[in-house]
Amino acid sequence: MSLNELMIMRHEWALVAVALVLLIAEIAMPVEKKKQINGLAAALAAVVVVLGFLPAQYGSLFGGMYVTDPLRILMKNILNIGVLLIILQSVSWLRQDLYHDRSSEFYLLTFASLIGVNYMISSGHFLMFYLGLELTTIPIAALASYEQFKSKSAEAGIKLILSSAFSSAILLFGISVLYAANGNLYFESFELSSSLINTLGFIFFFSGLAFKISIVPFHLWTADVYEGSPTNVTSYLSVISKGSAIFILVIVLFTLFNSIQLLWQDVLYATSILTMTIGNLFAIRQQNLKRFLAFSSIAQAGFIMLGVINASALGMATVIYFMLVYVFSNLAAFGVIQTVGHASGKITIDDYNGLYKTNPQLSLVMMLALFSLAGIPPLAGFFGKFFLFTAVAESGFYVLLTIAVLNTVISLYYYLLVVKAMFINTNATPIAAFKSDYAMRISLVICVVGILVTGFYSPVFEYIKNLCETF
Amino acid sequence: MSSEALIIFFLGGVVMVGAGILASNLLAPKSSNLQKAEPYECGVPTQGTSWIQFRVGYYLFAILFLIFDVETVFIFPWAVAMKKVGLSAFIEILLFLIILGLGLLYAWKKKALKWE
Question: How many domains does chain A fold into?
Answer without folding.
Answer: 1
